[in-house]
């Protein structure tokens, strides 16, 4: 645990130094000293949650190298004991780290991320509106999804529901504009559920819809601002409406995959850094490999997020891929070194 805490402190120190230099260029241009300190402090929970598997990997690797230098593994083998005598305490610490990572990601980072986005958008990037891209609007039992086009036009999806949330109608328009409390839509497709025919479809060249709701400032909820229960219900609503759920599904699975990776990183560290001898070459190779694999784990995780957001691979698969790959690699190497 002490090695993990030292590793955490080192990574946070490096982050603060790099981020301070990066954000210092905005001082006096929308960002002051107080906001800069607030920004750095608010980002610490996100960094802890994001880098916890790497912290566990490096901390466990350092600890196991110290045991190898003191010939602890030789003593364990001589006593006829198995490697589980070392693994169980390490896995217990990794379990605490995974629980801490999950709690921070569930209860703290959704709140701090909202404030971070405000500082980033308003004070650093100096955007006039927090709303960018797709908008969601609500008018009674109708839900509007607006995708900006050119010249104040939108591609629009309208979902009409009953008072219990049951789906009554879906309207898709390739182009729409709003004026005088009316939506003027063209190339319209209307879909309704039918008990007799299953689904009724109607196509119209033009359509007018009265609505007090226009293209106002409204932002699509961000996955990094949501708890597990919010993500689960929001995904269900999107699926019920026939809309894509890529980034939300990724965020939901990531909340469970990242903490589990802490346990698997202990196995990987044991396979790389635990030796019966005290040769410096093996130890150096082990710690370099552990750090390199930790960085690769982070890179693959970010790549999976981008691929899931662009719908190139299934989002659930992208969220679990780094954990499964590195966990499988650790199990393979550990079984191999144990002679299985």
UniProtKB/TrEMBL annotation:
Report how it sits in the membrane: Multi-pass membrane protein
The record ties this protein, via InterPro entries, to:
LptG, LptG/LptF_permease
Keyword Transmembrane among record annotations: yes
Could you provide one GO biological process annotation from this protein's UniProt record? lipopolysaccharide transport
How is this protein annotated for GO cellular component? ATP-binding cassette (ABC) transporter complex
Q: Does the keyword Chaperone apply?
A: no
NCBIfam families reported for this sequence: LptG_lptG
What protein name is recorded for this chain? Lipopolysaccharide export system permease protein
């Amino acid at each position: 645990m002490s090695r993990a805490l030292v590793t955490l402190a080192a990574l946070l120190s490096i982050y603060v130094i790099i981020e301070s230099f990066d954000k210092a260029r905005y001082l006096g241009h929308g960002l002051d000293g107080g906001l800069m300190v607030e920004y750095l402090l608010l980002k610490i929970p996100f960094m802890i949650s994001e880098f916890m598997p790497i912290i566990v990997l490096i901390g466990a690797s350092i600890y196991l190298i110290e045991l190898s230098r003191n010939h602890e593994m030789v003593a364990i083998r001589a006593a006829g004991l198995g490697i589980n005598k070392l693994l169980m305490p390490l896995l217990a610490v990794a379990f605490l780290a995974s629980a801490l990572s999950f709690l921070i990601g569930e209860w703290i980072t959704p709140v701090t991320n909202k404030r971070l986005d405000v500082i980033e958008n308003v004070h650093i990037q100096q955007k006039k509106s927090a709303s960018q891209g797709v908008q969601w609007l609500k008018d009674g039992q109708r839900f509007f999804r607006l995708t900006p086009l050119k010249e104040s036009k939108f591609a629009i999806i309208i979902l009409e529901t009953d008072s219990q949330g049951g789906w009554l109608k879906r309207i898709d328009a390739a182009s729409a504009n709003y004026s005088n409390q009316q939506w003027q839509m063209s190339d319209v497709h209307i879909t309704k559920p039918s008990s007799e025919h299953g689904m009724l479809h109607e196509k119209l060249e033009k359509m007018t819809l009265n609505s007090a709701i226009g293209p106002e400032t409204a932002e699509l909820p961000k996955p990094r601002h949501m708890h597990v229960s919010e993500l689960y219900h929001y995904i269900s609503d999107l699926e019920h409406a026939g809309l894509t759920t890529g980034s939300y599904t990724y965020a939901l699975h990531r909340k469970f995959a990242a903490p589990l990776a802490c346990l698997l990183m202990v196995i990987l560290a044991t396979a790389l850094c635990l030796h019966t001898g005290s040769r410096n070459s093996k130890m150096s190779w082990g710690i370099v490999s552990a750090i390199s694999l930790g960085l690769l784990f982070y890179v693959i995780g970010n790549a999976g997020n981008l691929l899931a957001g662009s719908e190139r691979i299934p989002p659930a698969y992208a969220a679990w891929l780094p954990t499964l790959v590195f966990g499988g690699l650790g199990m393979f190497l550990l079984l191999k070194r144990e002679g299985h």
